[in-house]
């Protein structure tokens, strides 16, 4: 495997009222260059903990990273936009950091390009309070791609959105990702979302001491259309396989929403 993002022997311990609590133990996962992997599991199992560690200290393209940096673009569940800046200005914050040698006009052209790709071309100068939740998340996605990261990390980016908006933004994300296929790791608890977006689904056991419990290859051809994916003969067998794994971990109602 051409390993581009490597998580090896990750262990995270928190202090509890009765002593140390191990949330994740000996978690191993390697992503190939250009691969999209979804990390799925029940709430509280440590998915976001793994992603946070990936954002701060992992091996990327064979180089150990010991802190945050623009080589990893992050999309959060809440887009974390600065409310006093416009959508364009929010995206420019990252672009200015990674392209200090470019002219202001060139940097602005990059930011506008990605905002247009996510459907915000007519809303560049609106501030976050004037944008819907879905539009704010579109701006967050544009910001992550605009810094040209080596790795894209997404922490349940559509978890707070209604179903229709979530479906729309899943398509926006996968269309944008398809242009240069950045290595991507996305946390989700939505089985259908994982199958639609990813090349592999990495399944986490329930905590404490959560670990990687299995990895499922997703065979659907790209580019992907939601209807074609759902009509693929392997779709429902794969869906049942993921759900069966999660039901073994407990809290079955959570994965059937």
Measured on Cα atoms, how large is the radius of gyration?
18 Å
Approximate shape: globular
Which percent bin holds the helix content? 25-40%
Secondary structural class: alpha/beta
Order of helices and strands: EEEHEEEHHHEHEHEEHH
Beta fraction of the residues?
15-25%
| CATH homolog superfamily of the largest domain | P-loop containing nucleotide triphosphate hydrolases
**What is the C-level CATH assignment of the largest domain?**
Alpha Beta
Number of helices: 8
How many DSSP E strands? 10
Main pleated sheet: 6 strands, mixed
The tally of structural domains comes to 2
The pLDDT mean sits at 87
Low-confidence parts, pLDDT < 50 over ≥5 residues? 63-68, 252-257
State the CATH architecture of the largest domain. Answer: 3-Layer(aba) Sandwich
Strand order, largest beta sheet: 6-7-8-3-9-10
CATH topology value of the largest domain = Rossmann fold
Distance between the termini: 35 Å
Name the features.
2 domains; disordered C terminus; six-stranded mixed beta sheet; four-stranded antiparallel beta sheet; Rossmann fold; alpha/beta; 257 residues
């Amino acid at each position: 495997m051409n390993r581009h993002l490597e998580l090896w022997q990750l262990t995270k311990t928190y202090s509890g009222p009765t002593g140390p609590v191990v949330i994740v133990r000996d978690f191993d996962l390697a992503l190939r260059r250009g691969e999209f992997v979804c990390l799925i599991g029940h709430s509280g199992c440590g998915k976001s903990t793994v992603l946070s560690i990936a954002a701060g200290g992992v091996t990327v393209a064979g180089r150990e990273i010991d802190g945050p940096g623009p080589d990893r673009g992050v999309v959060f569940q809440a887009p974390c936009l600065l409310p006093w800046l416009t959508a364009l200005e929010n995206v420019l914050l990252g672009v200015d950091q990674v392209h200090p040698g470019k002219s202001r006009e060139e940097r602005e052209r990059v930011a506008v390009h990605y905002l247009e790709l996510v459907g915000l071309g007519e809303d560049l100068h609106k501030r976050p309070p004037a944008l819907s939740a879905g539009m704010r998340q579109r701006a967050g996605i544009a910001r992550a791609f605009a810094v040209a990261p080596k790795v894209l990390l997404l922490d349940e980016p559509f978890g707070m959105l209604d179903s229709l908006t979530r479906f729309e933004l899943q398509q926006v994300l996968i269309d944008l990702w398809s242009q240069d296929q950045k290595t991507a790791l996305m946390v989700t608890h939505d089985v259908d979302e994982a199958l639609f977006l990813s090349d592999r689904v990495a399944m986490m056991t329930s905590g404490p001491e959560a670990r990687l419990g299995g990895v499922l290859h997703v065979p659907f051809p790209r580019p992907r259309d939601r209807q074609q994916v759902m009509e693929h003969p392997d779709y429902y067998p794969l869906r049942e396989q993921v759900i069966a794994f999660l039901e073994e971990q407990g809290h079955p109602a959570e994965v059937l929403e």
